[in-house]
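Job type: complex structure
Entries:
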Amino acid sequence: MIKQAGKDHAELADDFNRDEDRVNWHDETLWFIREKRDKAAHKIPEWESLREAASQIKNNVLSNLNNYLLQFEKNAVANGIEVHWAADAAEHNAIVHRLINEANVVRMVKSKSMLTEECGLNEYLAKHGIEVIDSDLGERIVQLAEEPPSHIVLPCIHKKKEEIGEIFHKHLGIDAGISDPQFLTEAARQHLREIFLTRKVALTGVNFAVAETGEFVVCTNEGNADMGAHLADVHIASMGIEKLIPERKHLGVFLRLLTRSATGQPITTYSSHFKKPRAGKKMHIILVDNGRTVQLGRQDFRNSLKCIRCAACMNTCPVYRRSGGHSYHTAIAGPIGSILAPNLDMKQYADLPFASTLCGSCSNVCPVKIDIHEQLYKWRQVLVKEGYVPAAKKAAMQVMAGTLSSPTLYKLAGKAGRFTIKYAPFAVSNSLNPWFKQRDMPAAPKQSFGEWYKQNRD
Amino acid sequence: MTVGLFIPCYVDQFYPGAAIASLQLLEKLGVTVVYPTRQTCCGQPMANSGFEHLTSGCNSLFIENFKDFDYIVAPSGSCVLHIRDHLHDDNSPETAKAISGKIYELTSFLTDILKVKTLQANFPHRVGIHQSCHGQRGLHISSMTELVEPAYSKPESLLKLVNGIDLINLGRKDECCGFGGTFCVTEEAISAKMGKDRVADHLDHGAEYITGVDMSCLMHMEGILKRQGSKVKVIHIAEILNAG
């Protein structure tokens, strides 16, 4: 996804904040989900050890990824699944295109797959005359609205039901002015039923792929992956290479964590295992790298690949809740997206690791214990060293570092008037200072503590 | 026991009252306190902006100022966390490591080292506690709503020893105030919105004062309160524990 009109996170967040009521609604909606997650987690006394187990299993996967991939391929092939390897997004999209051509069709139904968002698959196929219909309700809504998803689990969480009614009125022919969720869902259901019945190729994502058995598991609440895959002649499953787990028994850990972390549900309505194609049908798996092995080679950032895409870090993030998913201008928004995206393109995503207060809530809710906020801090160091920060910021930081390294300069700067300490962003009293837009300055005390101490104690 | 008092730069410059209260409180509790006068800053403003490589001057200065104390205490969770996690010096790595191990945020020094069980303090007001993220999630001075763990709070346990204090409950117990260092200007819209929301939670629950262990968060919320013309005040926890 390209930046909207070249704007960075702060600018897009500023746009989003022009409608404060909407920001409040967005924040409260996602906070409600965060609270549901808390309630679900607190019902499991061993929650923290479950997180630790998941983290260790994924660490093991990352350290032995080559072996597990080969084991998975061998078992999947033995099951009758065709396995493809894609080094990057372009290769992935070309493989999907070829498989669609081989099936002699020009239409495909697709369930939720953030990987295909990352790869820009829909746009690519549209350019080649292939129609893709997203079957996840939220994804279908944003697809009709010609927008990207704003959240990886709740793609249209930024839309109010009245707006969804308008979209359905325009595209699905329902009456104008309807906002009843049950009515809208039924309209989508009828529309998608026709799609499921007529599409011969179905693409799904993959939540977990089991090396031991060569099977994969797809989790949905709507059953849309199943309906697409079961009614099609060809099932294509796209997965990032980090989606592996060693053995089937490990699913017991991940399935308990995934949906509790995501929405507060004990488990997804459907956790479907796909192991082999039905007689006369075809099943394909595309194993996609697209930067993952590069990230695996970055010592400080490799464990971001433990991510199981639950979005708990988004729901808890006080910045995400108030800036909206589109402000991250990347397929995966929020804290986790901000540590994944710079790996793909440091220049384009240099703003994202700075779109955080480093409050640490993300790391605490992460079901696989990714140290998200610490990686945000580390990405900042990398981006500065690689030269992706504005020159003015660099110059200001050098002055600040010089002043603070010298007790004499520090005291002089203080004496020059507490309001004009150049390094304190909140201390410059003029309308150009962003601090002053919505906040006042602290009152200047008569003396600093250092001066008081000298007078009273030294 | 001699304690080196570390006063963060913005507290020194803008909130000397919090620093004086910290000093007096420690002295009341029988601690010998020394304030090394050549101190400046922990280096966090640069480091959190991605310029940790420019902090070696601050690091050496910090080590020079504080290496000889039994403990180092600061009225800030954020600056203490920075020293704990990031203080380093290629010339004296062991000294840096030792300092990281003996620096304490003020309230945890009171509960964990001094084991304070009583206080002679009066503060007859309705008070909301702001959980500063770095003290809470970084130094674990209180339990976190995200984790499945027993509830505890070092700052709250001390405030409960204060006569007349009325601690309020909040809608969101531990949401960030949005200060975030340079984030407060680089992401002005979100930072200010987070500050407004945090302040509103305290106001909705009838706070007369908002307190916490970090003056930076309180400064942020004070900026919002003042702009709104509110009579509600912010106050560093040391000033309450030292009151009366």
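Summary: The beta strands of chain A are 82-86, 107-110, 131-134, 201-204, 208-210, 215-220, 234-240, 244-245, 270-274, 282-288. The radius of gyration of chain A is 25 Å.
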